[in-house]
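Box 3.1. Reading complex inputs
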Amino acid sequence: MDFNDPMLALSSSIGQIGDFGLDLVWRFIHIVVTLCLIVSGIFELVESYAISLGLIQKYSSIDIEKLKCLAVVVDIEAARDVSKVIELLRWLTTIGVKQVGVFDSQGLLKKSKDMILEMVPRSVLLQETGENNISPDSIALEFISSFDNKEAVVKAANILLQKYLKSIHPENGEGENVFTESHLNEALRVVGECVHVPDLLLVYGPVRSHLGFPAWRLRYTEIVHMGSLKYMRYGSLLKAIHKFTGVRQNYGV
Amino acid sequence: MCRRENNDLSGNDVVQSFITGSGSFPTFASLNSQLRILVLSLLPSTISDPKNLGTVLHFIYLSSGEGMGGGIRQLLEQVHRLSRRSLFRVLSMGPLPTHLAFIMDGNRRYAKKRGLEDGSGHKAGFSALMSMLQYCYELGIKYVTVYAFSIDNFRRKPEEVQSLMDLMLEKIKSLLDKESIVHEYGIRVYFIGNLGLLNDQVRAAAEEVMKATAKNSRVVLLVCVAYNSTDEIVQAVKRSCVEKADRDVERIQLVDIEENMQMSVAPEPDILIRSSGETRLSNFLLWQTGNSQLFSPDALWPEIGLRHLVWAILNFQRSHSYLEKKKKQL
């Protein structure tokens, strides 16, 4: 018994020293990772300035027709700086993008939509014009938040529930199956949601994550991480759009 | 799974053999003096996990020359395993993901790149999957989800679909044949998707595996087969509507749909890894990945390795506090 107590204390101390050593190794690995990311960040910075100045040939022309609908996801902290969002939308107008959906989880940009529409030249609100009525020299903007994600599906589900309840009552005589993807799609339109699938989603934030963008619309969307909105670069934007135009999808076939 | 069985001698067996002299291992007493000193000096570093002690003793046994019949290959694998465990011990100093999801993309391109016959890419992909599962299990990740077959994949050439179904049946049955391995590692297997679209044999085998592993609880493997996220959402809406109609309730809430999602048996994924460098989700876990970190290594699925997993986890650890803050905001 007397022999065991010092032994236990010794093994506990050895364990603590071991954990401290492991923790140091862990921190060292993360320092190395940070340095690698800094170095690759510097290369990307130089490349994006070269692209902006037109020094890299392949980015000088982009087949923008391939990009029918672009979505931009903005981190909630970045969304508070509306001027940066306006600048980004102006760049997209210059590049020739016709339809842009701007998303932030809490709908801060929705609240500022009037100001954004005023400050971005030739911009119109998508809901007013409808997807097929966008004039060639304007850009249609859509403002999206988390309420357009799961809550919208709940609203659409309630529409389908009403249809289902009607169909099971004999006096109506309806027996069709109301639970298909096209039914849910239509129900989402009825509750006022745009169901157009973006071709490309640009994420401006610390992490590559779609941050709750409407799930129903993300099926085949290319998701690209652009880094922080505060340090956004025109060259990186051009590069991301150019890379998208080279992607070939087989849609699972 | 076969490869793991040959090499994964239980650490407890080796420790017991050393003490009691039973089994095919030498006892401590039978080691020469240098090896005895080596065992004693390594004891403190293995004290936090007795399994490590077994691994160390087994390593010594092999290097003592008495296990030369096992081959240099086994020795190298044990060294690799020990270094991997040390690396995982270091990684576990930071936050670790609870749930990892994989889109196993690039099997066909791999076969074409290597000049292999059709179907070999998928077999190589299966081996890569087994390695990944082993790493995830060793790291202590509780939930792993894999995108094995999409509803869209049914539109491929009939011969290819049939060969994929045959491969799936063979591998699912192998889980049944070696049921003891699944139970030994405590893996609970779920097959998530519209199983009605599968042929009877594959569906029956999948249901049998789910039933056989229902009592396991250490690790959960979710295999998405005949799956689409949009189909999962529609099916959840349908189940919610039918439930509400049965109970004469006229309003669905979000919690009803969430409960009826097939993936509700697992928490949301922390990391989603898609191999082959493609940046889209291809209708996989769209509902569940709002707070997930997406990672797209360029390697084709059969080429995926430990380094990609470690890089994904290191990045996850860097972003963990941001993603936790985001979850609380919603």
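In summary: Chain A has a mean pLDDT of 89.
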